[in-house]
């Protein structure tokens, strides 16, 4: 297992998600993608008549139709979790995927009304990095992942118009942005002035971000 798409129980814009899945399957091949439903994310598969390869969760938040659909999945691997657990269902799905060899994981439904869930899901990006997996959180407006120093961003491949950077490690020295509308040269980014790195734009065909640290949280966004 290398490429994995996890669908969690947050907000999902149906047309955007289906278009993304279609493009990934056309590019990679259905047999090379593992689709995982994380608990209430199973409702997305039900509504769109897509069979997940794996379903992970305690499933205590499923609708009656969702429970019936879960019981009907004879070819799907079901990983039932106890409701009293330390990890979220999405984190359990991520750990399951990495244990099976996943290196590239995309998560839908990681954003929603609850900020605590979103912050917890930012932690999954760090978990992935610690376990040698590249994790991306995505919805119709946001593309979120960790980037290393020296990362090259291609304008033709960017998601949305804006690019923002945040440090998850406290103050970040040496931040340099080349090829952006608002460049920086070895700037010492403090947590208190991180507004400086919000809503930048890529101007050159290729832009480069470098800094003196392990990683930065990058958000590509659109209105």
Annotation keywords:
223 residues, alpha/beta, nine-stranded mixed sheet, four-stranded antiparallel sheet, 5 helices, 26% helix
Task: Outline the structure in words.
This protein has 223 residues and is an alpha/beta fold. Helix content is 26%, strand content 30%. The protein is built from 5 helices and 13 strands. The protein has helices at 14-28, 42-48, 64-72, 89-99, 115-130; strands at residues 3-7, 33-38, 54-57, 77-80, 104-108, 134-138, 142-147, 151-154, 162-166, 172-178, 184-189, 206-210, 216-221. The strands form 2 sheets. The chain has a 9-stranded mixed sheet with strand order 4-3-2-1-5-6-7-13-9, sandwiched between helices. A 4-stranded antiparallel sheet has the order 8-12-10-11, with no helix packed on it. The longest helix is centred in the middle third of the chain and has 16 residues, at 115-130. The radius of gyration is 18 Å and the shape is elongated. The protein starts with a strand and ends with a strand. The model has no long low-confidence stretch (mean pLDDT 92).
